Amino acid sequence: MLMQETRDYLTKIGMPNGDAYTLPSSPLRFEDGGQYRFEVPGIQGPGAMSALLKEADNYGIRIHRITQTKGIMTLTDDEIDAMVGMAKDRNAQLILAIGPRATTDTSASVNTPEGVRMGYRLRGQEQIIRAVEDVKRAAKRGCRGFMVYDEGCLWLLDRMRKDGVLPADCEFKISAHTGHGNPCSARLMQELGANSFNPVRDIQLQMLSAIRQAISIPIDIHTENPKSTGGFIRHYEVPEMIRIAAPIYLKTGGSVAQTHSWDTTADDAKKRAKQVVLVKRMIEQYYPEAVISK
């Protein structure tokens, strides 16, 4: 095999020595024994969240995680309270996104051809402080799940969690907008304190399989995407995603939106629930033995 010396070193330090083209089955599971869970992103407020959950009931499906992406700073206290309450009632995880990010900063760099490479990362220590304040505010109102866009911010939040400044049961989800897509980056995010890892949206199966070999935390994978991030739909790949990458969150419903942080209406939320039903059908037909978390 080419470049064998480097591959041997990766094996020595417990990392995959290449992308996993053999696509081995993952032996890992969620704590309840499940292989997969459903996550619906882009639910920006309590109105959309209520519509989503009601439509899920109509379809008889379970949604395990609901993610808001516009930012905590865009929500009122009453809206946070309402979303936290609905999540507790349904025993679902609520993820609220940190508001300060490159696209809301006073710099125009992220909107330039070169600056787009910075993703949603933070510029300056004041932005780090503001990001922490966003998390502290929602944590005080009962939220325990947070979307993080910056590796340094993740490191700090994990340190604050360990030191008791933030509740010990807070969980941090690293966003696809940080742009990570390889096992070494995934391992680094886990070591920095991530509780789940979202690789780039177009990650191929052999790459996903290698990432699973590098980390033990859940992987969040987009089963579909808004037009602004490619618009591609991967429903037929979902059974293999579960088999090779469990435990996995299937991020479903994104194709309903035009862009990331789309202001989802109640009608849009219902359409996202339908997308979950379509993915569930794929699993039941092509991998019926797959175990969903209860």
Folded structure, characterized:
It is built from nine helices and eight strands. It is an alpha/beta fold and about 290 residues long. It has one domain: TIM Barrel. The protein has an eight-stranded parallel β-sheet. Helix 6 packs parallel to helix 7. The chain is globular and about 60 Å long.
Strand order within the widest beta sheet: 6-5-4-3-2-1-8-7
Between the first and last Cα atoms, what is the distance in angstroms? Answer: 43 Å
Can you count the beta strands?
8
Number of helices: 9
Residues in helices, as a percent range? 25-40%
Structural class: alpha/beta
Biggest β-sheet description: 8 strands, parallel
CATH topology: TIM Barrel
From the alpha carbons, calculate the radius of gyration and give it in angstroms.
19 Å
Total domain count: 1
Please, what is the CATH homologous superfamily?
Aldolase class I
Poorly predicted parts: none
- Strand proportion, as a percent range, falls in 5-15%
Q: Give the overall silhouette.
A: globular
Rounded average pLDDT:
95
CATH class: Alpha Beta
Provide the CATH architecture: Alpha-Beta Barrel
Order of helices and strands: HEHEHEHEHEHEHEHEH
Which labels suit this protein?
single chain, about 290 residues, alpha/beta, TIM Barrel, eight-stranded parallel β-sheet, 9 helices
Task: Present the secondary structure layout.
Layout: H1 4-12, E1 36-40, H2 46-59, E2 65-68, H3 77-90, E3 93-97, H4 125-140, E4 145-148, H5 151-162, E5 171-174, H6 183-192, E6 196-197, H7 205-214, E7 219-222, H8 238-245, E8 248-251, H9 266-286
